[in-house]
Every structure is written in structure tokens, then in C-alpha cells.
Design brief:
16 strands, binds 6-O-phosphono-beta-D-galactopyranose, globular, 15 helices, eight-stranded parallel beta barrel, TIM Barrel
Length: 460
């Protein structure tokens, strides 16, 4: 084998409650932001497929868990849906929801899969949506209360907790780029929501420390390295640095170091969008840093200085223009660049600038449209492109580990095809295929068989 990984390296996959469970009005679950939005604007969702059924993990979790194990998954991260566990703004616990997650966790353990739980994967309950979501400070404290319930109920069996998945997506996509609810473009609100989400995460860390649970608490951040067209040009470097502040360091620094980068505070001040911060908030953030980091990596960002004056509402585009590097590789289904060396650069950044804290790749993967085309005569999706994609990324991860990076695992998005928000089932990511028009029938793809070998041999 050319690439052997450290002993105990976690091989697994990630999904989330709202993208996999379905059963959206069963077991006492209340509506979430996705149910709420789909009811109002179903035309926004690819092929009109909404969040009600998704991959039906709610009913089929035993089969999924067995088949994931057969595909070599030995650790699985999903999220506990706030809307399944807490019924209302008062924090009333839904015991049926709790029982569901007890069963899922126990089933994973019984099948040799390490359960890893995230507490927020873009799924605000409707009762908080109606009160302004994370624009409202009350939501922040309600989240911390929900987190405390989860630590109390499941903390005896979960070692790896995370507060939020890709927290920056909440302000970025809901309040700037309009691909999540409430789909507005308002930089001032985005800054306030971003701050509230960080505060909610830090309060959840505080609850975790109080709970006395023996596991670890982290956060999952989508680190998107920004490369500039000409590193010798100060203006290009500046454009890249600003994007790094907005998209990466806005959550990375407060979560790991307990403080915001000064340059970010200055930028928000200059734009007149500094969020309201109550007395004591920054102290909470300072005192409640994480134990480990999950990194979602899909694609890089490319930036050069603007060549024209930006006109339009305040957006990150004010500070840069994208460029296309020569020889750029693309995943055309998703419209994302494929650039494997970034994984090495991320590892180096964590090592050099964030104390080499323990971290893992919590998501990396390739969504492909029309995978039916690649089915062989037995109906197996022969997804060699996915196998190559994983290998090419792992080579860079391996190099970083050899050079001392403290990376302890690799999770694929996703072990099985799941619902991708407004893209619904357009792009498939799984090692296991899910036929959503045939009762969510589950079949192993070629990548699933390959991943099993990878995981069994701890390398390739
Ligand atoms: C990440 C999210 C996941 C998942 C994945 C794939 O950003 O954490 O929830 O959706 O991206 O992207 P998409 O679903 O947009 O294709």
C-alpha cells in the first residue's frame, strides 16, 4: 500500500437529520425551516422534491446502518434535529423524538459504528423561524438549552459532539446569497445572525462543560481556502485575505482561539454593520473554545482585486472578482472546482496558525447528476470518478499527516444518497444508491465496495 493512515484513523461518512430522516410529521416532530419554506415556495426545489421523506432513514435506519457498515463506514456523523427533540419555544421535550435517537445511537454502536452527533445542521424549528430565527437573541439561548438536553440524554454514548455544521452558511446563504430561508440580501442582518450563531455555539460548549460528559465538543467549519491570481500583487492578496476573514476566520478564530480577528471587526465597523453585542458575550466566546475541529472541504475560492467598481447591495463581491486558473478541473454537475492540494493547505494552516489542534475531514465528496447512466447490467452504479476523487484528496491528506498534521479521520459526504436542500436529489453523493421512487431502495455502488477495502486496510 502506498498510503497507510495512522492507527485508529476514522473512516466514515456524514449526513444530517433533515437530509436523511424524512418522517417529518411523525413521532411528534414539529416543522422546521425547510418544511415551512417548501410549503410556501415549492418551485424553488429541484423537481419539486421537498423535505418530507428525504431518504427515509426514520423508518429504515436499521437497514441503512447495516449497509453503511458493509460499505466500510466505521463512524457516522448525523445531526439531532432540534424540531424532533424540542416541541416549542418553552423547551418542552418530545420523548418520542428522544427515543428515536436513542435507538439510532444504540443501533450504530451494536453494528460497530461510532456515532458522532451534530446539534445544528441548518434546521431551525418553525416556532423559532416565526420569531426571527437567529436574528432574535432568544433563539441563541434556546439553542443552548436544546444542547443541554442532548448532552443529558445522549452524553453517555457520544464521544464526538459538534455544535454547528457550517455555521457561516446561515448568514451567508440565508442573508446574502438567498439559497436558504429567509432568502434575503441584507449584510447588516447577516453580520448580526453570524454573531448570534457563534454565541449560540459557545454557549453550547459552556453547557457541555457543565454537563460533565466525558466526550469532546467541536464545531464543523467549511474551510474554503482562497487562492489569489497573482500572489505577488498586494491588491490580489488583499482580496483573498478579506474573503478568508469573511468565510473562514469569522467562525474559525472565535471557535478555536476565543476571539475575532481584529481585521474582521475593523471591516464590519467600516461598513457600518458591526453587530450588537451584549455585555459578557465576548467573554462567553473567549472562555468556551472547542476541543477539536471538523473541516468540510469541497472546493477552493479564486480571487483577484476588482477591476471595476462594485455596484449593488453590500456583498463579499464588493472586495474581489473571481478568476479561472489555467487547467481548472470542474465537477460540472455541482459547478464546483476540484482542487485536491487545498486539503494539504488547510492542514498546514491548522498546524501553523491554530495550534495543530485535533481535526478531521468531516465532509468531502462529489455530487453527480444522472448517475443512472453509470449503472452496469446488474444495476450497480460504477462510480469510478468518485473513487478517483476520494483517492486524489486522500493523497494530499496523507502527505499532511506525514508532516505532522493532527488529522484523525476522513468522512465522506455522504454514505448514502441524501436530500441536498434546494437541489433535492439532483446530485448524488452516496456510496449507497437510494432510489427515491422505489421506497428508497438501497443498493451498493462500486465506490461502496472500494471504500470497505480502504477502511479495512486503513489505506490504499
Ligand atoms: C455541505 C453541507 C451538506 C451537504 C453538502 C453538499 O455544505 O454541510 O449539508 O448538502 O454541502 O452540498 P450540496 O448539498 O449543496 O450539493
Amino acid at each position: 500500500m502506498d498510503y497507510v493512515f495512522p492507527n485508529g484513523f476514522l473512516w466514515g461518512g456524514a449526513s444530517s437529520g433533515p437530509q436523511s430522516e424524512g418522517g417529518s410529521n411523525e413521532g411528534g416532530r414539529v416543522k422546521s425551516e425547510w418544511d415551512y419554506w417548501f410549503e410556501r415556495e415549492p418551485e424553488r426545489f429541484f423537481d419539486g422534491v421537498g423535505p418530507a421523506v428525504t431518504s427515509d432513514f426514520y423508518h429504515k435506519y436499521k437497514e441503512y446502518i447495516q449497509k453503511m457498515r458493509q460499505a466500510g463506514v466505521t463512524s457516522y456523523r448525523t445531526s439531532i434535529q432540534w424540531s424532533r427533540v424540542i416541541k416549542d419555544c418553552e423547551g418542552t421535550v418530545n420523548e418520542e423524538g428522544v427515543a428515536f435517537y436513542h435507538d439510532v445511537i444504540n443501533e450504530m454502536i451494536a453494528n460497530g459504528i461510532e456515532p458522532m452527533m451534530c446539534l445544528h445542521h441548518f434546521d431551525l424549528p418553525e416556532y423559532w423561524v416565526k420569531k426571527g430565527g437567529f436574528e432574535n437573541r432568544e433563539t441563541v439561548f434556546a439553542f443552548a438549552k436544546f444542547a443541554a438536553v442532548c448532552f443529558e440524554r445522549f452524553g453517555d454514548r457520544i464521544t464526538y459532539w459538534t455544535t454547528f455544521n457550517e455555521p457561516v452558511i446561515i448568514p451567508e446563504t440565508g442573508y446574502l446569497y438567498q439559497r436558504h430561508y429567509p432568502a434575503v440580501c441584507d449584510a447588516k442582518k447577516a453580520a448580526q445572525v453570524g454573531f448570534h450563531v457563534q454565541l449560540a455555539s459557545s454557549l453550547a460548549v459552556e453547557e457541555f462543560r457543565k454537563s460533565g460528559c466525558s466526550g469532546k465538543i467541536g464545531i464543523i467549519i467549511n474551510l474554503t481556502p482562497t487562492y489569489c491570481e497573482n500572489p505577488d500583487k498586494a491588491e490580489d492578496r488583499k482580496a483573498a485575505d478579506i474573503l478568508d476573514l469573511i468565510f473562514n476566520r469569522s467562525f474559525l478564530d472565535p471557535s478555536v482561539k476565543g476571539e475575532y480577528p481584529e481585521e474582521l471587526t475593523e471591516l464590519l465597523k467600516e461598513e457600518g454593520i458591526l453587530p450588537e453585542i451584549a455585555e459578557g458575550d465576548l467573554d462567553i466566546i473567549r472562555k468556551n473554545t472547542i476541543d477539536y475541529l471538523g473541516v468540510n472541504y469541497y472546493h477552493p475560492r479564486r480571487a483577484k482585486a476588482r477591476t471595476s467598481v462594485y455596484e449593488g447591495p453590500l456583498m463579499p463581491e464588493k472586495y474581489y472578482e473571481p478568476y479561472t486558473p489555467s487547467g481548472q478541473k470542474m465537477n460540472t454537475s455541482r459547478g464546483w472546482e476540484i482542487y485536491e492540494p487545498a486539503i494539504y493547505d488547510i492542514a498546514k494552516n491548522i498546524k501553523e496558525n491554530y495550534g495543530n489542534l485535533p481535526w478531521y475531514i468531516s465532509e468531502n465528496g462529489m455530487g453527480i447528476q444522472g448517475e443512472e447512466e453509470y449503472m452496469d447490467e446488474n444495476g450497480v452504479v460504477t462510480d469510478d470518478y468518485r473513487i478517483e476523487f476520494i483517492k486524489d484528496h486522500l493523497k494530499y491528506l496523507h502527505k499532511a499527516i506525514e508532516e505532522g498534521s493532527n488529522c484523525f479521520g476522513y468522512h465522506l459526504w455522504a454514505p448514502f444518497d441524501c436530500w441536498s436542500w434546494i437541489n433535492a436529489y439532483k446530485n448524488r453523493y452516496g456510496l449507497l444508491r437510494v432510489d427515491i421512487y422505489d421506497n428508497c431502495k438501497i443498493t451498493m455502488k462500486k465506490s461502496g465496495t472500494w471504500f470497505k477495502e480502504l477502511s479495512d486496510r486503513n489505506g490504499f
